[in-house]
DNA sequence: ATCTTAGTTTGGTCCTACCAAAAATGGAGA
DNA sequence: TCTCCATTTTTGGTAGGACCAAACTAAGAT
């Protein structure tokens, strides 16, 4: 539904062009990574003016199907989850104007990760556990360096998103990281806080290893709630 | 990160225009719902050619900040979650070319809803329960009409997404509905299946009312797994 | 084979022009 | 005074041409 209304939408010369290019990209007729044909060639192919071709390229570019750097030949991109996230990013940013919106986004993250740690507690493999341990070790090693710690912190949570073996989740994680980061980096960091988070991660892993989803969820939740509280007080003070 | 590279991206006349219009929309200087100034006025305001103005409008339109129907004046849209979902829709569609992708998306839906029913079992209010009951009643009333039942089915799950009181979730629900629908409507429907689903919904509600998150999750999961299995067999047969 | 350089392609931007549909206008009729 | 219809004006959509500077190519020099 929605958008395939042929009724009200009479014309728009660029639409057929967009559709066909889109199809050619997805079908592989336009090879991924290869440059798009020159605009002047496309206008001959489609029998359209350069204006129209150009409009189509812009649209496809905004959808992530074409990567167009300023003065270079546009490059065909068969989209993956990351591409989509990237293209979606600018759109989502517009939503995060009020702190309420950021809170909603953060809450959804907490919701997701609660599910993730439950899942982890139930199904984590030896490899998953090993990954988590490695990530936590990296946490510990970076406690004294807040910038580095942030990286390892993100990485730890990233491991959680990879456990379900569904590429959508890592993409979501990238989204959260990128979208929340701007509202995050005002947060005060300190070795003390880093150590706190490190221990929280340890506790989460512990619950996962004991195959206790309720405990894992509880620890994760209090961990993330504390983080938010920290940010919130930073905002309002 | 990503995209604010001032390094490689030399110029692009439309970018400042996009940025300023974006800011004016978000700040409310350009009133939500009001028509955008005429292109010829904008080119005077920004001292840019119509080409550039037009490019900016297209870009903003693709981002959902402007709603431009074919021959009408573009309308300013201060984006809400729904707008974002709409704008994201076309992008996401490109990912769902293979059934594996659809499966991934569906799995993520199951993941989310498992969390939702747990949440419901723990925190659902009287009103939530009432909404669920009403939705289920609508299910029952529509059992004989598969088209109508589908609507009420979606509506039932929609109630779950509203329980956390976070506008992001209903938006996600809309996304799932819209994105999965095309791959869904090939599914065979029948009053028998409708009745099955109706009973599953009843069971979910039952578990929620008994405040038993594990049971609620289990019932929900088997409900959705069965639905997928049904679709899958339809595909491969 | 590598570097330099002259020539060609190509995207970015501006401009002019025209059309058809929308919106604004204004007047006729109730 | 209000409604409705016809006319004018505005406005978005598309076409085509022109020019520039940067990117690309190919030929020639080292």
Automatic annotation (TrEMBL), chains A, B:
The keyword DNA-binding belongs to this UniProt entry's keyword annotation: yes
Protein name: HTH-type transcriptional repressor YvoA
SUPFAM superfamilies tied to this protein: GntR ligand-binding domain-like (SSF48008), Winged helix' DNA-binding domain (SSF46785)
Organism: Pacificibacter marinus
Alphabetized CDD domains for the sequence: WHTH_GntR (cd07377)
PROSITE patterns on file: HTH_GNTR
HTH gntR-type domain location: 11-79
GO molecular function: DNA binding; DNA-binding transcription factor activity
Pfam families in the cross-refs: FCD, GntR
Annotated keywords: DNA-binding, Transcription, Transcription regulation
Gene: yvoA
Keyword Transcription regulation: yes
SMART domains assigned: FCD (SM00895), HTH_GNTR (SM00345)
Gene3D superfamilies: GntR ligand-binding domain-like, Winged helix-like DNA-binding domain superfamily/Winged helix DNA-binding domain
